[in-house]
Amino acid sequence: MNSHRFPALRTGMPRIVCSLAYLLPIALAPAVRAHSAAAAPSPSVLWYLQPAYDIMAGALPIGNGRLGGLIAGGLSDERIVLNDDSLWTGDTNPGGDYGKMGSYQKLGEIDIDLPGHDPADGYRRDLDLASATAHVRYRTGGVTYQREYFASRPARVLVARFTADKPAAYSGSIALAGAHSEKTTISGNRLVFSGKLSNGMAYETQLQVIADGGAVHTDGSKVTFDHCNGFILILGAGTSYIMDFAKNYVGGDPHPAISQHVAIASQTSYARLRHDHVADYRSLFDRVSLSLGDSPGDRRALPTDARKILAAQGVDPEMDQLLFQYGRYLMIACSRPGGLPANLQGLWNDSNTPPWDSDYHTDINIQMNYWPAETANLSECALPLFDFVESQVPSWRTQTQAAPEYKRPSGALPTRGFDLRASTNITGGMGWLWIKTANAWLLQSYWEHYAFTGDRDFLRTRAYPLLKEACEFWDDELKTLPDGRLVVAGGWSPEHGPFADGTSFNQELVWDLFTNYLDAGKALGIDADYRARVTSLRAKLLVPKIGRWGQLQEWRDDIDDPNDRHRHTSHLIGVYPGRQFTLRQTPEMIRAAKVSLQHRGNSGDAAEWSFAWRTPLYARMHDGDGAYHQMAQFLAARNSCVNLFGNLSDITPAVVQIDGNFGITAGIAEMLLQSHTGEIELLPALPAAWPSGSVRGLQARGGFQIDETWSRGILTKVTLTSRTGTTCRLRYGAKLVSLSLHPAQSITLDGHLKPLTDTKRVQSERAG
Ligand code: FUC
């Protein structure tokens, strides 16, 4: 294989390179002569004029929910980093020993040598969010070369196609390398490696090379080809992991299924593979479209990395749209039913020692990953989270009920329920500290899934039993203060300050759990007695107070430091993603929350995800410009450094973390539509930066899909479609109407909430 000439392709490269250096790859690499601006694409494309400068920061991610690829786009040395979401080291249930938790692993990579392709003209690399396909295109030696990549869920493989506009243009080689010193074997143009991790997990990867014309032969560990017209690559992989506690998370040998997937895909035409992939992807992606207005005229001519810098300095609504849809793209690519949920890096990982083990962090990160699932109309993408939780609960339960930290003065241990530590692996293991109310926080997604979809079966069989079990846990664990108030004892406010009784984060999460449980029980009409008990427990919960500088106190004692710039905003969880405090019902608490938020400042404390939390927080305060400012900071973060993560990944602080991408998507949705108060509120936090626009297909609680159009900052039209057939209260500013819809019925209203269709069902109400 050629030495990796292009900086993007050197693995040991330091991740932080400062701003002037950013221009080096373009300015100093004669290898790549930029494509003309004339090819400026639609706003739903990420595009670049050079290969990735760093794999995690710059390569373009594709995924089918389980298998992922990071495309570097090198000229003479293309590199595709491979991942399988279940390839993890670590022991099953290591009993809180962080060291034994293991970490998410890199699977391997495909390395393609194309001697003579460097230098090239007109280089362009892109990721088209409308079709979930990535591309590389360039011209060299009088030939125009094109590559297309996608990850097919229907075919369960990654696919790449290399073509040229002249025959016999390709000569080179293809290698497949595992990340754990495996030996790759080749037979019939199929490269295979397999292995077993020290925890016994078996895995395998198969790559079929299908050449068009020319001569193909194998050369040791590579497939080499001379004068081919082009080639197609089909990659399948898997592990022996299954999400099943009862089987100790060990399933069968992955080999037969991988062989079958690769064989079938290899016999299927490229056009059919692509068609099926795009149809599958679009069935989710096309549910929501967003238009936030025009960007300054010259922006479309700029590649995404350059445009990101400018967008952070001024308004660029198309970039905001791109950020929103990129979060949805990533969700579809890394969280599909049957697979594991999105981990700290989603699915994409170039290391066997990734930051924080690329695990499932339970004190913000995994929760944030799923914030947009319901509002941004990707409810099915939340299913991996529920499958994961249910597969881990038996182990979490055992560990919780044996935890010395939960031992009471009497020596008794908990006998009901489960809780979580901050880090979790995929085999029931947990590490680091207990995040006492992480159980409540994870289960919030269960309630939300029902609230948005109206799926009663899910509520009855999956959500309700866990919500009740967690209530029973807190029923046993809450401590009674001398004044009769109930508190979570010795809890943290992630991730700073003292461990104390009645910390606001914990109080708000138990309130949230109890409320979700009560709503669930009421919807199902069951367990009236226990509901009465939980109602009385909830009434006794200590409610966070307003402190000496007008802040929403983070702790029971008024010890908040007004200069505290910590990245977490844990005490504001009752504002977002919770619903304890709302503008209309508890305006004084929202005012106090805003004081706290403003004092947190704008540093984000080096975690980009913190801007992605502050965006929906300001949105819930109906401060659209405040929300926009946080979103702009997310975009701006670390623009002074090159590794400015041109692929738009969130970074925390020098490593990729995916939570912020999801949080920003959720934040934008929350600016445009809210439904946590019992009303559906239209355009609650529209910023001045988006004076005119439209959105189609956002979801609201109660099983509604909402389309909104606005002009000069004012709603002009709204269409509601009811999934299940129900009533709702629809609000725009001071205007409020009640609607009653049949299943699948739609209704359109103007900006005064006057019906444009089906007048019978609309009845005006006075604003509350
Ligand atoms: C939490 C955060 C960190 C980081 C880590 C993965 O500990 O406080 O910023 O996101 O998770």
Task: Give an overview in words.
The protein is an alpha+beta fold. It has four domains: 1-39 and 297-334 and 607-674, no CATH class; 40-90 and 104-286, Beta-galactosidase, Chain A, domain 5 (Distorted Sandwich); 352-429 and 438-482 and 506-536, no CATH class; 693-764. Helices cover 29% and strands 26% of the residues. The chain is built from 18 helices and 34 strands. Strands 1, 2, 7, 8, 9, 10, 12, 13, 14 and 17 form a ten-stranded mixed β-sheet that branches. A seven-stranded antiparallel β-sheet has the order 3-4-5-6-11-16-15. A hairpin with a 5-residue loop joins strand 26 (673-674) and strand 27. The chain is globular, with a radius of gyration of 26 Å. Alpha-L-fucopyranose binds next to loops.
